Task: inverse folding
């Protein structure tokens, strides 16, 4: 059995620059969901010729859906994840676009970013796993009859912050009912969905520290350098296996853009505007087939870089 100091060192030295790297396999454990992400997306793949994966991460979840539509594009915002996404997606022929996503579904009034850099009606299918989204912009980039499928982390979280003596954060209401209201207000029609609460655990303090560094918004006050947190971690260490358990919340929905606008649907004004395209040093955009595919789907003058 590793000592407390060894576990603490491991947790603080794991490279968490790539999303998910701090979720140590076998030591960060989630109770299985009553649905499978690929299972909820696959029924809509066969009728799609164009698809967007929102905030793709390293691209591995997208490739788990193969075979993909002929024109599949992914976007990612977080710069440290871009190299891993390029390595995953380029061999599969999937273009990657770097652009700004949405800010926060629990407070849509905070939307101050440009709209997504894709043409109106560009996609038959838009998929989203654990990413914020602006419903009116999802409506815009879907073709009439197109489908939006998303799995989300809900706002009902309990147990993790309390393990460190902090009150639960007020994350705002974010559940299936609220997501349904938002997408329906944007003009989409919900066709399916589900919701669940599940247990999460870290089996040792090394895994816990690595997780908290990967997801710092969970306990933003936490710092392993502060003595009081080391004391709390040591108390958890003495409890042995199952060092800390908490509850988390997941839901999903599928919604379709009607072939014709609903008679009662008010027009939704999109805020934000296209901005000058920028490039990022160190990455090539000269891969002809991928660039041609991306150009067909990107808006002119957009704030995006393609890989």
Result:
């Amino acid at each position: 059995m590793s000592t407390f100091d060894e576990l603490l060192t491991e947790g603080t030295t794991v490279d968490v620059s790539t999303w998910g790297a701090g979720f140590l396999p076998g030591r960060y454990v989630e109770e299985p969901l009553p649905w499978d992400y690929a299972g909820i997306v696959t029924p809509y793949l066969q009728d799609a010729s164009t698809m967007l994966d929102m905030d793709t991460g390293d691209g591995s979840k997208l490739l788990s859906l193969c075979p993909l539509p002929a024109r599949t594009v992914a976007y990612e915002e977080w710069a440290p994840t871009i190299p891993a996404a390029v390595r995953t997606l380029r061999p599969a022929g999937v273009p990657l676009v770097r652009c700004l996503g949405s800010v926060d579904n629990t407070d849509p009034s905070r939307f101050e970013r440009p709209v997504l850099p894709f043409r109106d009606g560009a996609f038959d299918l838009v998929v989203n796993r654990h990413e914020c989204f602006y419903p009116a912009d999802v409506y815009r980039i879907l073709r009439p009859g197109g489908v939006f499928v998303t799995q989300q982390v809900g706002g009902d979280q309990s147990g993790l912050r309390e393990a460190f003596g902090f009150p639960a954060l007020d994350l705002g209401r974010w559940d299936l009912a609220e997501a349904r209201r938002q997408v329906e207000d944007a003009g989409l029609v919900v066709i399916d969905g589900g919701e669940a609460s599940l247990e999460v655990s870290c089996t040792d303090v090394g895994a816990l520290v690595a997780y908290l560094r990967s997801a710092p918004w969970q306990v933003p006050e936490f710092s392993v350098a502060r003595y009081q947190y080391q004391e709390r971690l040591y108390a958890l260490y003495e409890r042995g296996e199952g060092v800390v358990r908490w509850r988390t919340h997941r839901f999903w929905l599928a919604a379709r853009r009607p072939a014709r606008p609903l008679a009662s649907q008010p027009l939704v004004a999109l805020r934000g505007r296209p901005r000058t395209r920028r490039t990022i040093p160190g990455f090539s955009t000269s891969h002809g087939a991928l660039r041609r595919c991306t150009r067909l789907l990107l808006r002119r003058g957009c704030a995006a870089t393609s890989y």
About this structure: The CA atoms of residues 56 and 246 lie 26 Å apart. The chain is about 25% helix and 20% strand. Residues 271-286 have pLDDT under 50 and may be disordered.
